[in-house]
Design a protein that fits this description.
Elements lengths: L20 H10 L14 E2 L11 H9 L8 H14 L3 E5 L2 H13 L4 E4 L4 H9 L3 E4 L20 H11 L4 E7 L12 H14 L3 E4 L3 H11 L8 H10 L3 E5 L10 E5 L2 H14 L10 H13 L3 H21 L11 E5 H4 L9 H13 L1 E2 L1 E3 L20 E5 L7 H16 L7 E5 L10 E4 L1
Parallel strand pairs: 1-10, 3-4, 3-5, 5-6, 6-7
Antiparallel strand pairs: 2-8, 7-8, 9-12, 11-12, 13-14
Helix pairs in contact: 1-14, 2-11, 3-11, 4-5, 4-10, 6-7, 8-9, 12-15, 14-15
Bound molecules: ligand F0G.
Ligand F0G binds next to helix 4 and helix 5.
């Protein structure tokens, strides 16, 4: 596998330090085996998330200086709105401070008086906000997604047949929204095809249910469509993005991913009626409509990042990093959600530790081992991250036991990727010695951020 060279050079650097193995063993113990409790300067390669960890370009940093900090009517706000309208084709654009803020503002409007939200897969904060709005989030991904070794092109897709069955079972009047998450983060950063988006839209129309796009990784999704969906092989990324959003009534976006900024989010919608409600909630929770909880400088960097994020040579390098790391794991026989997704390698921890039961959290066990092995911080996307059932409060088994290694945009080099691969190979060699974990303290929702664990 050839490494696709960076389409940029580096102008500013941030020093890293590597602790000794003994120090790392001590640090992770002090953190109660929860990597969210580690200090970042005790981490060598931080793959906790690709969210807000991006390196901005020289143009974005120049934009920071140009940011208009006016409370109302700032030029930076108008730049974001004009750029987002141009790229996403929706009339009404509301900036907010991040993705979950968009969810907090919009979802209660869509879910008022409803019982369910159905998604190809809810991300954890989206799931949390559906529950907070008094509804039940139901995931409806295609069955191919569940087999990590099956190399299907669009494993993020909605299972449209099941979607229709669910709507009939729940009653269409009880389903507040259909959420299409692109790429499908929780299924492994897997793409969704335009064909699938069109079919989902047809069902939304048939039953009169609004369709929302959770658009955190819309550009990576568009790149995969260009590679894998023949209809779009000659289309530009911008054209594919426009086609994707054409089928949504509204979108929420964490701009901390594909818009390559450190903070920011957007809500987009076609309905003036919904926009009027969004504005009111935004003023209460986020700030006045023309800044939405962001500084003017954040807005300016966002307006520029939205354009940089859909540059094809950047996306080729970006997805190329994932493919390079995945190829090294293939060579070593390490299972991951394959083909590799757009923002992360999701290592199949259940396959790495075949004798560890799901309720001992294999994804979390591998996360801890990676930190001890090489100071790498990933995170569990498995039964540990899965909250208890909102009604029965029982432990729920996740569809997967992943350790996610999310790659920040434009941050790490090929040498870093090799260190990650080498660490996984070393752990695989001693896999039968690795022990599971139990939770000794947890919050009622989004528990994985603050839980305390004990090694078994
Ligand atoms: N939707 C998706 C698909 C996401 O991946 C995230 C965040 C959000 C919504 C919420 O956005 O963080 O800006 O509030 N995902 C990050 C991650 C945290 O690590 O995958 P946010």
């Amino acid at each position: 596998m050839k490494y696709i060279p960076e389409p940029f050079r580096i102008k500013s650097v941030e020093p890293l330090r590597m602790l000794t193995r003994e120090e790392r063993v001590q640090k992770i113990k002090e953190a109660n085996y929860n990597v969210f409790a580690l200090n970042s300067d005790d981490v060598y390669i931080d793959l906790l998330t690709d969210s807000g960890t991006n390196a901005m370009s020289n143009a974005q940093w120049a934009g920071v200086m140009n940011g208009d900090e006016s409370y109302a009517g700032a030029t930076s706000y108008r730049n974001v709105v004009a750029t987002a309208r141009d790229i996403f084709g929706m009339e009404y654009i509301q900036p907010v401070h991040q993705g979950r803020a968009a969810e907090k503002v919009l979802l209660p409007i869509l879910l008022e008086g409803k019982k369910y939200a159905i998604s190809n897969m809810h991300f954890d904060t989206t799931r949390g906000h559906v529950v907070l709005a008094g509804c039940i989030p139901v995931d409806c991904v295609v069955p191919e997604a569940l087999d990590t070794q099956l190399r299907a092109p669009f494993k993020g897709n909605m299972d449209v047949e099941r979607l229709e069955k669910l709507i009939n079972e729940f009653g269409k009047e009880n389903v507040g929204v259909i959420i299409m998450t692109v790429t499908n983060n929780s299924a492994g950063g897997q793409p969704v095809s335009i064909e699938n988006i069109r079919k989902t839209r047809a069902i939304a129309d048939k039953y009169g249910i609004p369709m929302m796009i959770d658009a955190a990784r819309y550009a990576e999704n568009a790149y995969f469509i260009k590679q894998r969906e023949p209809e779009f092989k000659n289309a530009t990324i911008k054209e594919i993005v426009a086609e994707t959003f054409k089928y949504g009534d509204m979108f929420t976006m964490s701009a901390k991913k594909d818009a390559i900024v450190n903070m920011g989010g957007l809500i987009g919608m076609r309905s003036k009626k919904i926009y009027d409600l969004v504005k009111q909630r935004c003023i209460s929770f986020e700030g006045f409509v023309t800044y939405g909880g962001l500084s003017g400088r954040d807005l300016e960097a966002l307006a520029i990042g939205l354009k940089e994020g859909i540059d094809e040579s950047y996306l080729q390098y970006r997805i190329g990093q994932m493919e390079y790391l995945a190829a090294r794991l293939d060579e070593a026989g390490i299972a991951y959600q394959s083909p590799v997704g757009g923002h992360a390698v999701f290592v199949d921890a259940a396959k790495m530790f075949p004798n560890m039961p799901w309720y001992e959290y294999p994804g979390q066990a591998l996360t801890v081992e990676l930190y001890i092995e090489a100071g790498i911080r990933g995170c569990d996307i498995g039964s540990y991250m899965m909250d208890r059932h909102p009604v029965t409060r029982e432990e729920q088994r996740a569809e997967f036991e992943f350790t996610r290694l999310a790659i920040p945009r434009r941050v790490y080099t090929q040498a870093h990727l090799d260190i990650i691969a080498d660490a996984l190979i070393a752990i695989k060699e001693r896999a039968n010695e690795v022990k599971g974990y139990k939770i000794i303290e947890e919050a009622p929702i989004l528990r994985h951020f603050t839980a305390k664990l004990e090694a078994l």
